[in-house]
């Protein structure tokens, strides 16, 4: 496997009972790049995400993370693999009854033996890196804007400094301006920390702004892959129609480079 290939799926299938959710997925994500998996509801995107981050096992096929086949691993080994991933969930998935500090500190509390003072310092440092003032640590998620919640969710995902960030529908439910901020954030994290990004999305505009590679998933199958421009304007009629029906111009304004 080429050393730049950090996530590799080979003919991965997933079946729940009689239902075939993923029907032979093969894909490669390269270090330092952003891969966007796009598709409508029922395409199998969430199942694919759970397989990649080792929360589910495939029915068949191989999944290699940094060169290691995780499909035959025991739970203890899988726990080590999971530390390679930070996951930014849809709507940030923050615990409403916990403060920002408690939410962001969670991975450090679970996986390290750091003292509470050290944990607090690391949380404040990570929030500042993401443009949030230290005084937010005592706030609750309900007191934050949508964009701030996304940043807090991202801070939590970054706490163990994983080489791979997975974003689950990161712009879902956000207005266009906040969506642009989230796209900028994805690009900034990739560039600043040389992180590999995998974005699960149905947001075509976001795909154009952040993706090196776009993978179109329909009913559990990869029907097209390439740059967003290649999918929107290439020979694959299914991909062209999917992009055209989104109503997004094939050349939207790129994400800003400001931090």
Describe the structure.
It is a single chain. This protein has 259 residues and is an alpha/beta fold. The chain has a domain at 93-161. 37% of the residues lie in helices and 25% in strands. It has 9 helices and 10 strands. It has helices spanning 45-52, 75-82, 100-111, 116-129, 146-158, 176-193, 204-210, 228-233, 237-245; strands at residues 5-16, 19-30, 34-38, 60-65, 68-69, 85-88, 164-168, 196-201, 213-218, 221-226. The protein has a 6-stranded mixed β-sheet, with helices on both faces. A 4-stranded antiparallel β-sheet has the order 2-1-4-5, with helices on one face. A hairpin with a 2-residue loop joins β9 (213-218) and β10.
Structural class from helices and strands? alpha/beta
Strand content: 15-25%
Largest sheet: 6 strands, mixed
What's the overall geometry? globular
Order of helices and strands: EEEHEEHEHHHEHEHEEHH
If strands are numbered along the chain, what order do they take across the biggest sheet?
A: 6-7-8-3-9-10
Uncertain runs are 252-259
Distance between the ends = 34 Å
Instruction: Work out the helix count.
Output: 9
**Whole-number average pLDDT?**
88
Q: What is the CA-atom radius of gyration, in angstroms?
A: 18 Å
Helix content: 25-40%
Q: Please count the beta strands (DSSP E, at least 2 residues each).
A: 10
